[in-house]
Amino acid sequence: MKDKAGETYIKIDEDILKDVPQEEWKSTVKQAIKERFPNGFKRNGWTIENTKESRKEFVWSKYTKALQWEGANAYADKMRIAANLDEIIGRQTKYTVSLRTTRMRKHSTGEKSRSKSRRTPMRRMC
C-alpha cells in the first residue's frame, strides 16, 4: 500500500500481542515467528533462515533493547510487526548482504604467544 506521499507501507491487521502481558512479549513474538514462517523468508532468490538465533536477534538486538528502554510505542510496534515479517522482508528495497570476510586463524593463541616471548602461556593452578 502507499500513503498520500507515495511511501510504501504495510498495514498490520492482526495484533499478536493483544491481551499478552508485556513481560511475555518476547516469547510470544518468537513463537509467532517460529509457527508462521517455519521455512524462513524468501528475498530475491535468497532464503533467510528462521532459526532460534534469528528469532532471538529480532526480539533482543541492541536496537530492540534501545527501543524497549527509550521508546515504548516504537518497541510495541516492532513486536507487533512480527506477524507480517514476510511482507516486510519481501518489500524491502534498501538492503545489504553481509558476508563473513574475516580469515580463520591458523594457529592457537598459545602457539602465537610462545613464538613471540618464548614463554608458555599462564595456566590456572588448582
Describe this structure in words.
It is built from six helices and two strands. By secondary structure, the protein is mainly alpha-helical. It has a two-stranded antiparallel sheet with strand order 1-2. A hairpin with a 2-residue loop joins strand 1 and strand 2. Helix 1 (25-36) packs across helix 2 and helix 3 crosses helix 4 (72-80). It is globular, with a radius of gyration of 22 Å. The chain starts with 24 loop residues before the first helix and ends in a 9-residue tail after the last helix. The relative contact order is 0.13.
* Strand fraction: under 5%
SSE arrangement, N to C: HEEHHHHH
For the record, give the distance between the C-alpha atoms at the N and C termini, rounded to a whole number: 66 Å
| Helix proportion | 40-55%
Mean pLDDT: 81
Parts with pLDDT < 50 across at least 5 consecutive residues:
none
Q: How large is the count of helical segments?
A: 6
Q: Which word captures the global form?
A: globular
Can you summarize the main beta sheet? 2 strands, antiparallel
* Major sheet strand order: 1-2
Record field, number of beta strands: 2
List keywords for this structure.
126 residues, two-stranded antiparallel sheet, 6 helices, mainly alpha
Task: Provide the fold topology.
Elements: H1 25-36, E1 41-43, E2 46-48, H2 52-60, H3 62-70, H4 72-80, H5 85-91, H6 109-117
Antiparallel strand pairs: 1-2
Helix pairs in contact: 1-2, 3-4
